[in-house]
Design goal:
Layout: E1 2-8, E2 19-24, E3 30-32, E4 35-43, E5 48-53, E6 58-63, E7 73-78, E8 85-91, E9 101-103, H1 109-121, H2 140-145, E10 149-154, E11 157-162, E12 166-167, E13 175-178, E14 183-190, H3 191-196, H4 204-214, E15 222-224, E16 227-236, E17 240-250, E18 254-263, H5 267-279, E19 282-283
Length: 291
């Protein structure tokens, strides 16, 4: 026997959700990815757990619950051996792939393929915004400086926010920036990749309507004041109620979605800032991203 230790790194993403750890076992009572599995235990946000497992090669799954195991799920292949194993990971937020747990570092080719497969099945149910709590006792000097413009760059795109935003690493996003009030999530998709899938996407309007239809979002695509966007509300009984403004942009070879997330009761307060930030999006070739 050997010890398998898994650390769930503390994260705001899915912080109220308890994760379930399973191992492939022919005597198990739960089927995940067409494999019988048995439950090893649970992982709370920021928790580390150690489980005893056999020495032979096996496979680990981390799921939110049995209802969402087909799309909000992660897999890790463990080789045979007698040495103890320690893994780390955390939940990752994305409109495209949901709120799934992701192990840190490289994973097997099968695990990469599994991520892609489950990502295609994802929908909005597991999306939980990552909003930093309002910190008490913040220094007055920081409060003044947080409104100074600050430009962030990612893969040829630039967006101007303010100095209160900090970059947050998320493997499922091209970029993610957090302030105490607003989260900004950026994802780009190559136009050639969309067309290779046989999708009729010839404009930002087509791309926006594809996203709304694909993820069954209750929203209307709007083009006005130099922006193409849609917005919607998402409520969670534990975490809270959020409002999303999703602006769409186009570079020479890709379509981009920039998601702005706020609490619903603060949406009106940040609406003008969000519009200003969205209009600041530009690309290396000098063309504004908004159409």
């Amino acid at each position: 026997m050997r010890n398998l230790t898994i650390l769930r790194t503390k994260s705001f993403v899915g912080c109220a959700m308890k994760l379930n750890v399973y191992i492939v076992d022919e005597c198990g009572d739960t089927t995940i990815n067409n494999q019988l599995c048995r439950k090893l235990g649970t992982l709370k946000n920021g928790q580390e757990q150690t489980f005893q497992i056999d020495d032979w090669a096996t496979r680990i799954y981390v799921i939110a619950d049995k209802l969402s195991k087909g799309f909000c799920s992660e897999m890790y292949d463990l080789p045979a051996g007698v040495e103890d194993v320690r893994l780390t990971g955390k939940c990752k937020y994305s409109l495209i792939s949901g709120n799934a747990f992701r192990f840190d570092g490289p994973v097997s080719a099968d695990a990469q393929a599994y991520r892609k497969k489950t990502g295609k099945k994802g929908w909005i149910v597991m999306i939980v915004a990552v909003i930093l709590g309002v910190a008490l006792g913040v220094l007055s000097g920081w409060l003044e400086s947080r409104t100074e413009p600050k430009t962030f760059a990612v893969d040829g795109m630039v967006i101007t926010l303010h100095t209160g935003f900090e970059e947050y690493e998320d493997a499922d996003l091209d970029a993610c920036y957090l302030s105490e009030d607003v989260e900004v999530m950026i994802t780009g998709e190559k136009i050639a990749d969309l067309k290779a899938l046989g999708l009729e996407v010839n404009s930002l309007k087509d791309y926006g309507e594809l996203l709304i239809d694909l993820y069954d979002i209750d929203a209307e695509l709007v083009t006005e004041d130099g922006l193409t966007y849609f917005e919607y509300d998402y409520g969670d009984p534990v975490i809270g109620d959020y409002h999303y403004v999703c602006t769409l942009h186009e570079s020479a070879d890709a379509y981009w979605i920039v998601e702005f997330a706020t609490y619903q009761d603060e949406a009106a307060e940040h609406a003008e800032d969000i519009r200003t930030w969205a209009k600041s999006v530009a690309f290396a070739e000098g063309a504004a991203g908004a159409v």
